[in-house]
TrEMBL record, chains A, B, C, D:
It comes from the Bacteria. Its cofactor is pyridoxal 5'-phosphate. Residues 3-276 form the Aromatic amino acid beta-eliminating lyase/threonine aldolase domain. GO terms for molecular function: lyase activity. This is L-threonine aldolase. InterPro entries: ArAA_b-elim_lyase/Thr_aldolase, PyrdxlP-dep_Trfase, PyrdxlP-dep_Trfase_major, PyrdxlP-dep_Trfase_small. Coiled coil: none annotated. The keyword Methyltransferase does not apply. GO terms for biological process: amino acid metabolic process. Keywords: Pyridoxal phosphate. It comes from Donghicola tyrosinivorans.
Amino acid sequence: MHFASDNTGPIHPQVMEALTEANNGYLLPYGNDEVTQVAIAAVRDVFEAPEAQVFFVPTGTSGNALALSTLCMPYQSVLCTALAHIHEDECGAPEFYGVAKLSLIGDSDLMDPDALEREIVFLNEGGVHSAQPGAVSITNVTERGRLYTLDQITRIAEVTHRHNLPLHLDGARFANACAALDCSAAEMSWKAGVDVVTFGGTKSGCMGVEAVVFFNPDHARGFAARRKRAGLLFSKSRFLSAQMLGFCRDGLWRQLGAEANARGQYLADILRQHPRIEWPYAPEANMLFPALPRSEIKRLMDSGVKMNHWGSIEGDGNEMLLSRFVCDWSLPYEQIDAFAEILRGMG
Amino acid sequence: MHFASDNTGPIHPQVMEALTEANNGYLLPYGNDEVTQVAIAAVRDVFEAPEAQVFFVPTGTSGNALALSTLCMPYQSVLCTALAHIHEDECGAPEFYGVAKLSLIGDSDLMDPDALEREIVFLNEGGVHSAQPGAVSITNVTERGRLYTLDQITRIAEVTHRHNLPLHLDGARFANACAALDCSAAEMSWKAGVDVVTFGGTKSGCMGVEAVVFFNPDHARGFAARRKRAGLLFSKSRFLSAQMLGFCRDGLWRQLGAEANARGQYLADILRQHPRIEWPYAPEANMLFPALPRSEIKRLMDSGVKMNHWGSIEGDGNEMLLSRFVCDWSLPYEQIDAFAEILRGMG
Amino acid sequence: MHFASDNTGPIHPQVMEALTEANNGYLLPYGNDEVTQVAIAAVRDVFEAPEAQVFFVPTGTSGNALALSTLCMPYQSVLCTALAHIHEDECGAPEFYGVAKLSLIGDSDLMDPDALEREIVFLNEGGVHSAQPGAVSITNVTERGRLYTLDQITRIAEVTHRHNLPLHLDGARFANACAALDCSAAEMSWKAGVDVVTFGGTKSGCMGVEAVVFFNPDHARGFAARRKRAGLLFSKSRFLSAQMLGFCRDGLWRQLGAEANARGQYLADILRQHPRIEWPYAPEANMLFPALPRSEIKRLMDSGVKMNHWGSIEGDGNEMLLSRFVCDWSLPYEQIDAFAEILRGMG
Amino acid sequence: MHFASDNTGPIHPQVMEALTEANNGYLLPYGNDEVTQVAIAAVRDVFEAPEAQVFFVPTGTSGNALALSTLCMPYQSVLCTALAHIHEDECGAPEFYGVAKLSLIGDSDLMDPDALEREIVFLNEGGVHSAQPGAVSITNVTERGRLYTLDQITRIAEVTHRHNLPLHLDGARFANACAALDCSAAEMSWKAGVDVVTFGGTKSGCMGVEAVVFFNPDHARGFAARRKRAGLLFSKSRFLSAQMLGFCRDGLWRQLGAEANARGQYLADILRQHPRIEWPYAPEANMLFPALPRSEIKRLMDSGVKMNHWGSIEGDGNEMLLSRFVCDWSLPYEQIDAFAEILRGMG
């Protein structure tokens, strides 16, 4: 019962096949190979963006940090929420890559466009005393498993662009969000005002690859140099590219997003039957954040359920703890059913 | 006839098999998986260093830069030669990762230990006006295809340690060097006074993996945090580790180094027959740097030979240009023979 | 009526005299002069800390940033409150100097030691995914004009040291705090558990000088090199040092702190008479943060009162705005009386 | 006999007077004061550049590093000679401030424009593997006391601009160079193709101030933010500005440059009489680099002469050592005459 993360599972066979296909003969290194050119074209197709600048990197953290540092001057900040992965879980990567600071807009996973506008105005008034805004970043699926609707993204983009800032979308779970919103990749990105996407492959069935997609080529200036000096330009780039190629082929990316979501919703239905469960965050894709009594979480974990929770589970108290269950595309429904048995046994 | 680099070829089947084996079931992410533990043990075995701290990264540039920045305080410099890959070919990665500066010791590929000592003394005398030495870095096989002998490494290590500095070895072609010197990995590293090795897998048959090996665990303090904030901690770490595991198993690493060297020497013998060839750098492993007349280089390239050279080949002049031929482990001898035909036809 | 800041006023005559005295003959540059040695001794005397490492810098921002980056490894964070000057008003200087991130403990000017401990534990549990704590920083007088008592500082130091972290005190208004608490410099620093102080001269009558004082010399390792590579080592260091010497001589620093506080309290008494004034932050030293109706603030500013406030003063609304009045040591009481007249006329 | 540096002497009375004049009443902080506005106008007058963007900083190192990092993207390098102060004596400040790397053009103090062009072409060909050129920096008076003529500067500027790079002039001794070349500030800067000057006050009679002058305002974008986050924006900016104001008033800057040069040439004439002196670098301004026998240097130093030399003076050997004598504007001719006595006594 592996609900700890969507990065604990295997690689999808179609991605492995693409790797095997690419493992053939001599190709130019450093991205000057045909596989990379075809993979870039495939990503442009997914996003209906023939002019987009596309770069492959092996991790989401590097993709986000490279994208954001490319959008900002070194004395500028990125505005995000206090729950943003770039703030909470990347060990300061954006700052390391050259963003001056992260300026936090509220402590929800969903950014409030009015609060965003107030902070931009406030920072602008601070003049040189504040790190000036350089870009805005949001995440979809959010860090609490919820979704920005297309309208919500559009509203944030309007504020962002009104102040001449670019909007970045951390799409570690882009596939899940797109599938859940039943929209196209273009609709959830440039059509809604997003300027740059980190399009995640790793959590959705790849070995380790993300595509950074700049819809405005001017925004990409310097990305290639930054990627190289970070040691992220692969000499055998074809093997990064091949993963993305396999992932994009025949809409696999979207299908895997949908499959993970279906498992997530199946699990949510089971959890809903628990009498004491609460939902501080609505379960909308493949990642669920219910609150459960401390004692129940302990029992689940003792029964071998792999999951996360916040707060120590020692002590007698039985307060409600926030927990996290994630389903990846490969998770057997039998495992979820087995979990249901355990949960019922506990009720 | 692919002599442009040893990163243009395919992945060795044993490495691909290790990847396939690892692609099975649910494992903890971020290096907390069994495959990673086994791969670390395998690297320790290769180096006969059971206490070594071992970290996997996907590229040589990131391995070097992380290793060197971990060895230095941010205001300290790394001493290397002017031909060092970390100086010439990594787009400033060591400085980006936190090394204050590279201080250059001569313009050969081989560092002179006396010149090293003079520079250390000079920089120390500079006090705060100079970036103070923090570490020394050498490369074996060198950037001109030559070898440091074990004695030469030992002499550099003596100078380095006399000034309380650690010695780093850029081992992008560690396997080739070890095979050419007919020594063990331990002999070419900690037994000769090397403190940290970037042990390269990528150029020797892997997809993209290097092991950074710290023989003194104290030197590794902070490496894990630095790797994460650079976005280089793979969530699905098992697939980095599996490559290294396949590479180390049954001495494959050494065998592939030897095979590449054999092809290099076979090619050198052919080149030696050319009446006008000169050898500014003795060909000692799998990478050759002969000088050839400009016209011959042009004819070779026109014949479809993939190689590198320095200096434009336009114009009528027929001066000698430095060129580079690299053989990887997989290169068919038939290709080298075909090259011999072309070369003879030109003579 | 200059209440905008305590950095708008002149230099105290005793400081100017020290500069004139120092302007004599030839002295070694870069701090190897006698004036600097005497000034360091004077600061050690002020703090009763004969072993302290003392460094002079021209601004508070540089003093704080150099101190904090010296305390941290580049992948570690500094914990401070969301109102900290280092977070709000230094344009990202700590991060620029090498602190990975600022981790915010609450949004008050006063840090809660329990919240501090919870955050340290939380970040430690985050492992490499979070920037690990490297140091804690508080400010006295706080950014809202209040004081930490010696007991409060001690409690924060206890938490800090329990987790093996050093405690930094931003003492831009150290003199005011010491005078207001009626304690010695030692009592407000190392005796209460503070490890490093930025001891401010600029706001208290100097031209531009702060002393960074490390009570544990081990903590100061690398400070000199960092100061130089930031371009903050003055060639004619004697003129930084002379200011600090004049400032420390005969307890001038403390006297000027007390004089500024006396003016602050005199002004506070006048403000208290205003029928609609509110005090979200008790006025305890030379910097006052009353809330006043928007209309009154507008009238004060229209009458030539120099001050700060938060929030736009346009519109008809008459909500209460937070304002800031600061008195420096030199401010004529007549100006405060003149302000009282205006305020009364408005009432 | 203080020939060690031109930063060991006192402040010129006219500069002290300007400081005293500025020490009067309440002025806005952070450069929003009248003194700063007047000082900026004075620098623009000196350079006949009414549109220039002018910023004051306290040290040459900070001025150079801020100027160069403002001209470059973080992944770009600055091209300078191996003797450049920014390379040899600033502890890595340019890199700390955000320049990716320094790329060295020869090991003379005078940059060869042809070598410059070759290196630019070479780096451009390196693509992402090399840090790409972002700016070029030269120094006048050079680090070996020589002068670039206006023609030589123009030739370097032509190469620089042909490759769309800006040219920076480290003018720590701008006044001496201008006086020695008998040209105007404009002629030695923008009229010769220089885009940015660090105009030095500190070595020529100020306490500690340099003006960074951007002739193209577009080049200055971000400088103010960078200065602040480096902690180099003085709250009491008027005291930086006042120094520069006193320095520029009535051509004092030029007069002090000429006076220092006159002393330098007076000293050179004396040194020329020494039978064994050699001049690897022609003495052209106020800084002399003769080679003298080791024994003579030792005797001079034992006689109390303050100077610098390269190489240890222990041992019996009597090889020629490079030495440095610097005269500042204030040096009494009697001291030089006294030195002449010692030198003659030694002959």
